[in-house]
Amino acid sequence: MWPRLYPAPEKSPRLLFADKEGRIYDHPYLLAMGLSGYDVVLPEREDFIPLPVGSALYVLPERYPIGYDPHKDEPVVLKENPFAPGEPVFAVAAYLAPAHTQVYLCPYLESRKELPPLPLFSYAAAGWHRGRFWATAFRSDFDHRQEVRFFNEERIEKAAKEFLRRFPNNRFVKHLVENCVRRYRCPAARNFVLKRFEAPAPCSPSCNARCIGCLSWQAEDGPHIAQERIAFVPTAEEMAEALIPHLKGAQRAMVSFGQGCEGEPLLQAGLIEKAIKLMRQATRRGTINLNTNASLPDEVERLRKAGLDSIRVSLSSARDNYYKAYFRPRGYDLHNVRESIRRMKNLGGFVSLNLFVFPGFTDEKEEFEALCDMVSLGIDFIQLRNHAIDPIWYLKKINFEAGSECLGIKNLVKRLGEEFPRLRFGYFNPPLR
């Protein structure tokens, strides 16, 4: 569970906790720990990196932090503020900036039963060391497309107004500007109005899965959604009108159907096929991508033949029971997903996995073996995305039972690279053209 040797406090980040007002403190001597599945572990010093610019710290309400006591050589649940005895404390986690992948999650103990789940964010372990915050993570992609230092608010708003002026009757553009850029500050939508990188193309209000971690739809007893789902279906002409100039002129141009603010885009395959054909009639420049659950192989094949360059397949687990428990698919299963990958590869397309990284689950040996079986279908690229979900709630919802040993997230990537030398890793959809 944790090393027996006492780590030197001056070399290890100390535990973070928050008071009832949300003020964040570092503990005088307890050390930051990490969560791997249900296990609380003491991270190695090299598992920590300085908290990346663009990250955030989140207070976890009604959840006690867990730290390592080097004097007792054991983990300790912190229930009251050492600087204000009798006052409650809460755990603190790091939400990592894009392009960074978590190694451990934030450990906590629920203060009571039946707590509502945490909002749909990722919760990496964090600590304080030598005057700065640290997090258990590594940089998994050196693409700078979503770094906060490249977003100027005045420039973005000016560009947004110009898009509305240029396309006054285009509902698709209005949605991207007013909802995605201004309301949710979506990095992809902001890049779209700045005429660079990957442009989002949401178009599907419906879905054939009921993911327990869906960002845009939840049952009443589920987590708070991250963003509302698109409520209309744009026309192919509306999308092509806005996206053709992007493909023609943007640097490292890419268009991606399938966003967090919509359902499953394959349910709008006919519309997307028409939009792709309109775009490809106008230009061969740029990459046209589809983020999908890959549930409908016939539709994937149809879109590839129309000019689709790549697909990114969302994957919480390569094991059937856990896949079904998370996605709760309607009318499809992992067999259909694998068939979609085969067809895309048989037609010369590029396939990425959108791997939801959850320490203690994703790196289990059994999961690794199942993942290798899927990668052997011809996967080109794995995007190491942090699973945005309440950790303990998630494990309970999928009925997780720890089985085999865990490799560690870094070692998982290393092992996959050794098994598949041509496999690439990153965080974002890679441009192909």
TrEMBL record:
Alphabetized SUPFAM superfamilies for the sequence: Radical SAM enzymes
Keywords from the named record: 4Fe-4S, Iron, Iron-sulfur, Metal-binding, S-adenosyl-L-methionine
Radical SAM core domain boundaries: 204-368
Domain of life: Bacteria
GO terms, molecular function: 4 iron, 4 sulfur cluster binding; catalytic activity; metal ion binding
Cofactor: [4Fe-4S] cluster
Descriptive protein name: Radical SAM domain protein
Species assigned in the record: Thermodesulfatator indicus (strain DSM 15286 / JCM 11887 / CIR29812)
